[in-house]
Write a structure and sequence with these properties.
Helix content: 25-40%
Distance between the termini: 40 Å
Order of helices and strands: EEEHH
Protein name: MbtH protein
Structural class: alpha+beta
Number of domains: 1
Pfam families: MbtH
Strand order of the largest sheet: 2-1-3
GO biological process, one term: siderophore biosynthetic process
CATH superfamily: Structural Genomics, Unknown Function 30-nov-00 1gh9 Mol_id
Number of helices: 2
Largest sheet: 3 strands, antiparallel
């Protein structure tokens, strides 16, 4: 199965550095990550991440640079 054919449901998760990832819905988020309330297909979740994660630098780097 390719990623394009993946119709499983995922949750968008974010860590303390404001980095985003996908996680299979129904499984507890990994330690250090929390669900952000967005679920859907892989494509839907990736589209949400593309919309909200516009600065890929970790939070600590952004803070140190005064962003």
């Amino acid at each position: 199965m390719s990623h394009d054919d993946d119709q499983r449901t995922y949750s968008v998760v974010r860590n303390d550095d404001d980095q985003y990832s996908l996680w299979p819905t129904g499984r507890p988020a990994p330690r250090g990550w929390a669900e952000v309330g967005v679920t859907g297909t892989r494509a839907e979740c990736l589209e949400h991440i593309r919309t909200v994660w516009t600065d890929l630098r970790p939070r600590g780097v952004r803070t140190a640079m005064g962003a």
